[in-house]
Amino acid sequence: MFIKDHKQHEVKLPFIPVTIGVSQKQGRTDRPNGFDVHQFLWVIEGEGVFTAKDNKVTLTQGHGFFSRKNVSHCYQSSGEAFATMWITFQNGEELFDYYQIGDFFFFDVPDFLTNSTNHLIELCNSSVSKATLSAHGYVWVTELLDALFQRPLSRTEKVTSFLEHNYDQPLTLPMIAEHAGMDKFNLCRSYVKDTGETVMQALKRIRIQKAKKFLRYSSYSIEQIGRICGYESPSYFIKIFREVTNCTPLQYRLNK
Known about the structure:
Shape: globular
Strand order of the largest sheet: 1-8-3-6-9
Oligomer: single chain
Order of helices and strands: EEEEEEEEHEHHHHHHHHH
């Protein structure tokens, strides 16, 4: 997916997505002088050989590669075709410096990355301003860099992160407890103690927060936004939204 002609947008916003998408048959790519944008690229199927400067690494599904712009690199299949997901972008150098990131690195893909990238694609496909697009991209990259470089999360933080990245799924308390490696009773007790709200209250809050963003910044219908936010029933979505905000989704959209 080509988002916009990035050469038209040299304004110093913190993060400007340029292209984003999936290559089902990733071809050989040689960039002896690097790329004119920064990029994250990760393998979703098969196996590829990645070379950056003098570093040569074979990456399989669930592993990825980052390079700053103008950094020499190449990649190709190690045999049969392989598939990748990727995003390229302009700016963000100050953010890389904050995380003390060099010219390139290889990484293990966090569980949430595919979902968060698909959500970013949805937002990029919506009619949003350059500044809003930059804001959504900034959230995407900071969540990824936090997962890769920050301190280990507590169990409660891991649960919250799981909810934030899977709110569109039909989550149940047993499913969330299984992900946390706890029984649901211990999960409920510890989560309320740490956060002051139940797991399901947190899930509802996150879903409604996401719904507000889609209502404000996208052209999706109320029914589509409900589904995106984990509510298959439009009437139930409207009911929950009204309980939390004291207005319907349509009223919220019209008033913003």
